[in-house]
Amino acid sequence: MPRLFKSFLVVLALISLRAAGADLPAPVLQALRPLGIPTSSVGVVVQEVGASRATVSVNADQAMNPASVMKLVTTYAALELLGPAYRWKTEAYVDGDNLVLRGYGDPKLNHESFWMLLRALRGRGLREIGDVVLDRSYFGDVSPARIDNEVFRPYNVAPDALLVNFKSLRFTFVPQATAVRVFAEPALPGLAIVNSLRVVEAASCPEGRAFRELIAAAFESKPPRAAFTGIYPAACGERELNVALYRPEDYVAGMIRSLWAEMGGSWRGTLREGTAPPAAQPLYVHDSEPLGEIVRDINKLSNNVMARQLYLTLAAEFGGSPARPENAWRQVRQWLDAKKIAAPELVLENGSGLSRLERASAASLAALLQAAWRSSVMPEFVSSLPVVAADGTMKKRMRGERIAGRAHIKTGLLSDARAIAGYVLDRHGRRHVVVMLVNHPRAPEAEPALDALLAWAYEGARDPARATARQRGASPRHP
Hints:
Layout: H1 2-21, H2 26-32, E1 42-48, E2 56-58, H3 71-82, E3 89-95, E4 98-103, H4 111-123, E5 128-129, E6 132-135, E7 169-175, E8 180-185, E9 192-195, E10 198-200, H5 208-214, E11 217-221, E12 224-228, E13 231-233, E14 239-243, H6 248-262, E15 266-267, E16 271-273, E17 281-287, H7 291-300, H8 304-319, H9 325-338, H10 362-374, H11 378-383, E18 407-414, E19 417-425, E20 431-439, H12 447-460, H13 464-471
Parallel strand pairs: 4-6, 5-15, 6-16, 9-12, 10-13
Antiparallel strand pairs: 1-2, 1-20, 3-4, 3-17, 7-8, 7-14, 11-12, 18-19, 19-20
Helix pairs in contact: 2-12, 3-7, 3-8, 4-6, 8-9, 12-13
């Protein structure tokens, strides 16, 4: 009897395990199996837009780390709460000989925009500057994310009410006969570049961290120094590497000093923190791109710093300055409640997904995507998502497949999390909400499983047997 009872328990466990994964399409299960990723580490929802029930629902209510898919919550909330035409401003004041710059969190005050701001000051007659005073009080002090100890990666740059060009440099590598030319933009004063790269023949070029290790990239911030002393595969062609090398105040000072001199101006003072005194005279207000354009950069390129800037903008707009993340969370929670999206498991820390604390479920994200499709800001929201095999973080995925160009999908990736969420227009002309979250040490390797779900949804998620058979190149059996 004990042996029979144990056998019964084993069979029961196997049946439960099969039932737990029964709703996952076969191609997805097949892609997960070699990785050893169990169904319990996956949350999936596939649901036709406007339908009352999901076609696939696996661990749908389980709280999971959504990685950058969390940006969907932040950008959709901001589009509705602030409006697609919302713009950030950066103000310039003159206080005697001093120039005061007051920021309000513009997420895209990049090199070109900052050049235009300074050019506008020169055009209004400003030439000689004493001190430059930076007023960054709208956000206050914000700590960097520091995910995975990547100190010099731009995605770990802290938000800033006066964020100039993401505080980053873009190093460009141009291979020549036997050496590699390396230059940085912007070319800030004081930057030392050590370059002894050797060109070698290779069949392929590594990506990400593997590329940085191959060229032996090493950085120091004080004084600013970049060294590249490894090898450079000719197969890499021209490559770029973005690095947050300077301290914030040194970066802005370097930008102003080089650009202002190019414009024929002179700066004889220093850069310091402060605020505009009451007697300061307004000189110019620079407007950002509208939010409807900003969210495209946030979602298509998965820009973490811009997402955090947007999240703190919500905090300041609805909770006052200095911005506090909890005020943004409170506003988003109220907004979700008004839309009747319960999302009891939702946890927001900074709104970007670059977090070990943030949590969401596949069901809540699916409900959000269903609501967004009915929203007045739907065009701006959907157009901000990467198009499969065409642009953004989906540009290199699923090329040559029938789904190419027929899905808008936000991606997410951390060292132990991988995710997708968005819309798939299937071959019958039906549109589906598709969400898949994977939390597991091997989650970064799960891209084939995520793509398999997208392909399955494209083939006709309403009829799983027919869709699976079509993917295998066989005709589905009829009863």
